[in-house]
What does this fold into?
Amino acid sequence: MKYLFRNDYSFGAHPKVMDAVCAVNLEGNWGYGDDGHTARAKERIRQVCGLPEAMVEFLVGGTQTNVVACAFLLKPWQAAICPDSGHLNGHEVGAFEATGHKILPVPADAQGKIAPVDLVPVLERHQDPHLTEPKLVYISNATENGAVYTKAELTALYAFCREHGLYLFVDGARLGAALTSEANDLTLPEFARLCDAFYIGGTKNGAMFGEALVITRPELADGFFRMKKRMGAVMEKGWIQGVTFQTLFTDDLYFNMARHANQMAKRLQEGLKAKGWPLWVESPTNQVFVIAPNDKKPILDEVCDYEDWCPYDETHTVVRFVTCFHTAQADVDGLLAALPDLN
Amino acid sequence: MKYLFRNDYSFGAHPKVMDAVCAVNLEGNWGYGDDGHTARAKERIRQVCGLPEAMVEFLVGGTQTNVVACAFLLKPWQAAICPDSGHLNGHEVGAFEATGHKILPVPADAQGKIAPVDLVPVLERHQDPHLTEPKLVYISNATENGAVYTKAELTALYAFCREHGLYLFVDGARLGAALTSEANDLTLPEFARLCDAFYIGGTKNGAMFGEALVITRPELADGFFRMKKRMGAVMEKGWIQGVTFQTLFTDDLYFNMARHANQMAKRLQEGLKAKGWPLWVESPTNQVFVIAPNDKKPILDEVCDYEDWCPYDETHTVVRFVTCFHTAQADVDGLLAALPDLN
Amino acid sequence: MKYLFRNDYSFGAHPKVMDAVCAVNLEGNWGYGDDGHTARAKERIRQVCGLPEAMVEFLVGGTQTNVVACAFLLKPWQAAICPDSGHLNGHEVGAFEATGHKILPVPADAQGKIAPVDLVPVLERHQDPHLTEPKLVYISNATENGAVYTKAELTALYAFCREHGLYLFVDGARLGAALTSEANDLTLPEFARLCDAFYIGGTKNGAMFGEALVITRPELADGFFRMKKRMGAVMEKGWIQGVTFQTLFTDDLYFNMARHANQMAKRLQEGLKAKGWPLWVESPTNQVFVIAPNDKKPILDEVCDYEDWCPYDETHTVVRFVTCFHTAQADVDGLLAALPDLN
Amino acid sequence: MKYLFRNDYSFGAHPKVMDAVCAVNLEGNWGYGDDGHTARAKERIRQVCGLPEAMVEFLVGGTQTNVVACAFLLKPWQAAICPDSGHLNGHEVGAFEATGHKILPVPADAQGKIAPVDLVPVLERHQDPHLTEPKLVYISNATENGAVYTKAELTALYAFCREHGLYLFVDGARLGAALTSEANDLTLPEFARLCDAFYIGGTKNGAMFGEALVITRPELADGFFRMKKRMGAVMEKGWIQGVTFQTLFTDDLYFNMARHANQMAKRLQEGLKAKGWPLWVESPTNQVFVIAPNDKKPILDEVCDYEDWCPYDETHTVVRFVTCFHTAQADVDGLLAALPDLN
It folds into this structure.
């Protein structure tokens, strides 16, 4: 049996979530999210975000949420600025372009982050009406490389966006990992006030599936349900998402799971460093990136599931290990024990 | 507590499905459907369809499946012919048009069915290259009005389609109800050979969610996974769909549930007739359509959940009752007992 | 040599237009409409419309203008209401659906017109958020059947639209014919105040090509140039459109040509009636619709170009004759002389 | 009066083209390109291309042609590979993405060209079905930077494309300049056999407007007219395009004009070098790129129309001068005389 570090969706839901879904399975509910569980889950999310007027809607997965939300906010000739390493740009088979919008990639730093200075040349160049109008900035927190935005960074970015009429959308597939990271200095309510829309990722943190999209400024939310329906993103048995998020935000389950995943990742990262495996980036969240010698990859393949991230050089590959709510300390220690010392 | 006849997605999954999903919840699986459960479920569906080469892919819900499948089969200038009462045309917030395709509605008969004769004028008119090219025929089985296509009808329709280079796509949201109806004379393998693509609806028959799309002619299937991903329709924890459909097609659970729903609907339909409630259409499946006097609707509202289907006349409304795997005989009898005798 | 009554784009431009285009051909101008001719033509159109703040932009053809303008005004989940006989619905190969929007056809009267009463049931039905949001009403003036909206009709329709938050867009491919019709009681400034956007068709009234889109409420116009460019609708040598419309609106050329076409059509219509050819509709503009006996069609084919409009019955076909600025009285009289008397 | 070197669409049509268009202006023709002039022009283009079976269709402008043609060839999940400097990627307000397709930019060399070696990593990376499928390679000849593909280069690129199932599309907005360049070693028939589709640009070489799209492999062309109509790209008075291209390909007018433009550009480029103005790239076609000192730009602004291409450094800007069929030797010499000597 291999150790599973391939991603944070290798396991299903936290048992509390499964129990809650099973408990309501046959109680009978209205469809399409018009049920009490969903209403209460939305209310709970508004509460934990400190945004009593925000729009909350549940979707199924990350790509779907990114695409529906970003396309919802844009007019046809408007484009999304995105770090070149961003998920919207890279890994979604053109799902966003399928809605008719161009992505304007900007080079991200080694952590996968972007800052106002990166946006300035895009805005200047796109004064030209023969080019798209940049109107939305897409970032991820945690980023694709496991980094988190600090309060200062996000404040600066959002201030710039507001000043230039840009929407700021945060992909929160790993928002739990971000907000429970040692590198984080933002509360959820603080975070929520520093963007126009974001989602709280359930799939990668203890749900069977489900993402909670929050549009923080209610004046932007008009018409969203129809947009969601039009994109085939409305679940008939929507209460499953409602019950899921009710449970995730009861007794701090969501953040406790994320914190656990981060701790397991830290233990793994420290252990790998101690054994002489060089890090590609130092990650404060639940993704660990290591520069693996290609001649050691057969050992990796034998003992664990992981992912090839990108080539590093002729003889090395960047590989990624991901932890989650279900990663046990014994798994981390077992993996470390099974790997050779490179010192 | 009301009797719940609003639709066939008022309840979650059959307990056997829930148990199976729970059983694998933490076993660890690869994402995106690249797991063994999904592979076995696909194989099982090919087997029950008698189509060893067919493509099977799982999607989340009905609108999504209709849209992804139909858009997949068409070139940009091609259109889908659809009964005017068809779900693709009516109830999907333009989800299909959102993929850039026009729907060519044709008048359906009182049962919601169409026949080759209905297609002829569309094809003639659309010889004109200033009009879209009709290329796909969308039907539902069971139809929106609860009817089922007979072997003769479907054979004639598909022969016409093949002769004229049209794809035939069957929305099988209620395929279980259709194939277990007393009005049905088709086996699943016979049915599967009479169309180019169809889906086996899970959401409306005992799954938490999930539809199994079958493209019966493998030469048409190339590229489908990317199309699905592009439409945000790939689940990260895809094994849930796999396990669900494995269970549905074990011990005939899928058809047993559908048969039960049909029996409950028949009992309800007979009971309503006996009490003098006129039927709008005689339905052989799990939807019952009644012409309700508007002055009796407060009683209906009090005792059950149901749906207003369409206005009938100044003083009557067509209402719909739907049964499902979880509808108990006591529910049917209780509802009937609670309704006034109109004789 | 046949008489050409097939359509109003069988001939090129009025000689004054050609002369004007030729006169500036080699003078050197900035591209993309950033030239003085275009600026002056826009200003002239604002002036003749009595709308000093309106947005005016030039496009190439009718389908393009309809599609760009309507898609510009709508959000993705919004739909256009359109008479079932409307050009947007029928004859554009799904060009509007290609922008991702659904058309909601409503039955038009025999003249091709719609009224507020036709819109009410659409709005009621589409309260349901599982359906598209109707947001724009598309009509043509003159209609596809040659009729014109009266001041009272258009006032009522626009008042209804404003009251219900609907945009009113008027396809003015034959606006000249409409506003110079004997059935018309609207001036151009009056007309322009009774809709949110319309276009003044050049192609069908004396231009080589070109349509002048007017968005009457400037607050709706923001971003239009980018939308136009995104749809491939910006001409590099845009001054040709500018010079064309300058000429069309000098010395009343545009309306004089349209008036002439209407007079020729009236002469033809009266002549046909006198010879016992039954009209399909009585048209006050430049299209004449006749119920032709199928056994007389060979004669028609021999003497003139015309168009089959639609089947009438087993032995008759509705055919259409169209006049234009270049139709001579001798052509009308010649055609009439060549046709058999059906009395 | 300034010297006009801003672009190759500052002037209208060559007098022979204008004369030809005027000559047929009132002769009466069928619409939508169903006329004899258009038929003969298509036949003539097939002939000069040496491709008797090729599909030829006329469109209005470059962006429209690029977008319609590339979208026509692709399935929804397929993407176009494009030099990062390519027009499709940069200057079309997301017109291509508006059709739902992603662009995969690859770094072009200093001349704006790409080679098979640039495509390899894209194809490797996109084996992953979670990414788009690269299916079409877009290049321009002449490139955006004025360079031309040699026979060896194009042969290698097309062989690679055929081997990997990629379509090769060549934007020929400046095809005349390319094929008459001193750097060119391809005849039009040779060129035409080295790609799947291309267009012969009329707008930038002596037409009022109009591009002739050639799909060299007729088996790829099925359905194109409907696609063109769906994109609003069918002209009602299509014979104008027909007559234009008939004239362009009579007595070698098209290539004679292009050769003249190239000669004028060469004279300008040589003259600028002689006066110490450094070239940004050495261009063998009708675009000249110079690194202009910013403190000399007021002089440039005073004496000529030109275009800022891109910033070079703190004190210099790359500027572009473009010649065309109407550029006179006196214009070149006048401009050179008016510019300061930087030696």
